[in-house]
């Protein structure tokens, strides 16, 4: 639990440090760098979740590795800043050391004949080697690209093993941990409001309400739509939560910058619409992958979400220059979607009539 809380602060910290405006617009190059860095931290957390859910406890060794990994994670997060578009040599070096540390933890599990640990260990060590190669390439664009390749290579292990990992399904434990972690992320995103509540205004209140409504839609799907007893691999659940969490963090950060008057209204609206689409689509994918048999996902249900998003997009284009109106429309859109999700998707009247 403490590990998850710490990662929540790490992810929110790098979001605030790396997503910043320039002349009223979010800097796209820094945004790309941010996505790569966020994916790196997410994969570190993913490997820790897989390890703790699948392999037997080794109190002394695991606590030592946990302490070391926490230190490396905290220090690594402090090396990222909004200055420049290149990853520093210090960041790449400590990223390689962190991958090496997690890889060594899996190596010990392999030594004790734990299943599939050897493949995950080798994958992490390869990622560490590529990260060191990016360090040798310096802070140029080539070095950043190589670091992105190292991050992508780290994801190959869980993806390749996703079917084999179903032999010992731990979806119930992992999904509960994912839910708690997402709650932490939403709570942290909500706390972003404090930056704009020095002088309480309608925009800050609406921003707070929209964040709560986003969380509500997620909780509805987890509580009523997801089959917690499924034997499917939990790897997709771990990876699908990455764009979900990213959208929450970025929406809160972009809204905070807009309320503070640091980005232009049209830029805020564009980012909000894109991130809202990603969030909604990701929830749909999560529901489709692990849904209960009683959940109905008919074409008419999907059409409603597409049509309502199109209407809100049109509304947003009209009200983009008036922040309170745009945020009020966002809250109304989220309320309508949450009600439809609860009433017609997760509790389909047709299914209820059939059961009666």
Automatic annotation (TrEMBL):
Naturally occurring in which organism (per UniProt): Lacticaseibacillus sharpeae JCM 1186 = DSM 20505
InterPro entries linked to this entry: Low_temperature_requirement_A
Key words of the record: Membrane, Transmembrane, Transmembrane helix
Pfam families, sorted: LtrA
Segments crossing the lipid bilayer: 27-45, 65-84, 90-109, 116-135, 141-162, 174-193, 205-223, 235-259, 271-290, 302-335
Official protein name in the record: Low temperature requirement protein A
């Amino acid at each position: 639990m403490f590990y998850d809380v710490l990662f929540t602060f790490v992810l929110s910290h790098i979001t605030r440090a790396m997503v910043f405006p320039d002349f009223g617009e979010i800097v796209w190059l820094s945004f790309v760098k941010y996505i790569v860095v966020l994916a790196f931290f997410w994969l570190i957390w993913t490997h820790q979740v897989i390890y703790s859910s699948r392999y037997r406890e080794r109190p002394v060794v695991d606590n030592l590795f946990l302490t070391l990994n926490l230190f490396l994670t905290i220090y690594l997060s402090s090396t990222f800043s909004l200055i420049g578009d290149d990853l520093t040599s210090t960041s790449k070096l400590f990223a390689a050391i962190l991958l090496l540390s997690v890889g060594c933890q899996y190596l010990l599990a392999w030594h004790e004949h734990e299943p599939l640990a050897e493949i995950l260990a080798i994958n992490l060590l390869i990622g560490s080697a590529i990260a060191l190669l990016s360090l040798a390439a310096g802070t140029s664009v080539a070095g950043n690209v190589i670091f992105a390749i190292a991050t992508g290579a780290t994801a190959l292990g869980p993806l390749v093993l996703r079917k084999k990992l179903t032999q010992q399904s731990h979806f119930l434990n992992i999904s509960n941990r994912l839910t708690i972690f997402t709650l932490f992320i939403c709570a942290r995103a909500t706390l972003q409001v404090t930056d704009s509540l020095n002088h309480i205004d309608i925009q800050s209140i609406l921003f707070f309400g929209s964040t709560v409504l986003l969380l509500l839609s997620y909780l509805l799907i987890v509580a009523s739509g997801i089959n917690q007893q499924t034997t499917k691999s939990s790897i997709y659940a771990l990876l699908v939560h990455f764009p979900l969490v990213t959208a929450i963090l970025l929406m809160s950060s972009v809204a905070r910058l807009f309320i503070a008057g640091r980005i232009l209204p049209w830029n805020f609206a564009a980012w909000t619409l894109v991130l809202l689409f990603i969030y909604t689509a990701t929830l749909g994918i999560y529901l489709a992958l692990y849904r209960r048999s009683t959940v109905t996902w008919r074409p008419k249900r999907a059409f409603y979400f597409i049509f309502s998003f199109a209407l809100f997009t049109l509304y947003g284009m009209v009200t983009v220059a008036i922040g309170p109106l745009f945020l009020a429309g966002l809250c109304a859109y989220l309320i309508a979607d949450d009600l439809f999700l609860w009433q017609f998707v997760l509790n389909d009247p047709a299914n209820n009539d059939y059961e009666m």
